Amino acid sequence: MATGLREAGYLPADATALVCFLAERLGKPVLVEGPAGVGKTELAKALARLLDRTLVRLQCYEGLDEAKALYEWNYRKQLLRIQAEDQGTGWDAVQDDIFGHEFLLERPLLAAISSVDPVVLLIDEIDKTDQEFEAMLLELLSDFQITIPELGRVEARTRPFVLLTSNNTRELTEALKRRCLYLWLDYPGTERELEIVHLHTPELPEQMARRLVEVVAMVRELDLRKPPSIAETIDWARALVLLGADDLTPEVFRSTMSILVKHRTDLALVAERVGVRLAGAGQPA
Ligand SMILES: Nc1ncnc2c1ncn2[C@@H]1O[C@H](COP(=O)(O)OP(=O)(O)OP(=O)(O)O)[C@@H](O)[C@H]1O
Ligand SMILES: [Mg+2]
User: 29-70: per-residue pLDDT in tens?
Assistant: First the structure.
């Protein structure tokens, strides 16, 4: 699994590779939690590439309901169908017709279980929805079937590989956690982050990349409102390549650190602590 994920462009920690391997074998969903920008969404994309499956993505938000997540009737088409009907036709005949598959709009969850080829289903940022939605999801994840009142039971044609992500803005229910394997993604260690930087910005010289990753680790040690994530490390590396910077001098750091740190109070703290250390490191011994 680790090699496969690497080939798919994702450098996993050992735990990540293990949990994905087990999830695939056991046929269980994975709940991925961790701070923003540590590669939760990217993991699902990489799994889809690795397993050569389509990625079906459900982006969660407050107020997301079944009509947007599961299915919806195509009212407009139903209306047209009714209007096209001859006056004499009985209501029963029309009703049978307009509540058929042809008038159903599949949303991501239904699409994922009714797909002929198994897919990877990413339910992104599940913590943004409410508990009611979670309960509906539980039913789907345990039975792999849904009941549409007018149509009856729809059973899964194939089992998707399910990945749920959460930024931990609210505690998820025990019931949901129990059905999933759990993976906590954290900021990577220096060596793995260095590899990730290489992967995304091969143009950045090795020496620079190492310095950059070390500085990011230094910044993360400070007590910030929002520590820089892998996404910010990559952005910073790209910016330095674009600017053609060949050394991480205090000046370069000061002029580009807003890519890394995005709160005014954090900026001040980082400028003071890290800027000074960089200047110190630049002096001959
Ligand atoms: N292990 C990794 N290997 C390769 N690239 C990675 C890895 N981890 C993160 N990245 C890169 O970091 C960036 C951010 O990752 P991603 O968007 O998946 O974060 P996230 O955890 O979903 O964040 P958010 O919670 O804000 O949605 C992406 O560009 C991704 O390619
Ligand atoms: Mg994400």
Answer: 999 999 999 999 999 999 999 999 999 999 999 999 989 999
131, 173, 158, 96: CA torsion to nearest 10: -30
What is the DSSP code (8-state) at residue 173? P
Within 6 A (CB) of ligand 1 lie 10-12, 36-42, 167, 196, 199, 230-231, 234
Q: How many angstroms separate the alpha carbon of residue 45 from the centre of ligand 1?
A: 10
User: How far is residue 177's CA from residue 74's CA, in Å, rounded to a whole number?
Assistant: 34
| Cα separation, 121 vs 158, whole angstroms | 12
Closest CA to 109 of 151, 59, 63: 59
Calculate how far, in angstroms, residue 195's C-alpha sits from the geometric centre of ligand 1.
14
Ligand 2 centre distance from Cα of residue 50 (Å): 19
Tell me the residue type at 100.
Answer: G
Pick the ligand that lies closest to the CA of residue 10. 1
Per-chain mean pLDDT for the chain: 92
pLDDT tens digits along 165-193 = 999 889 999 999 999 999 999 999 999 99
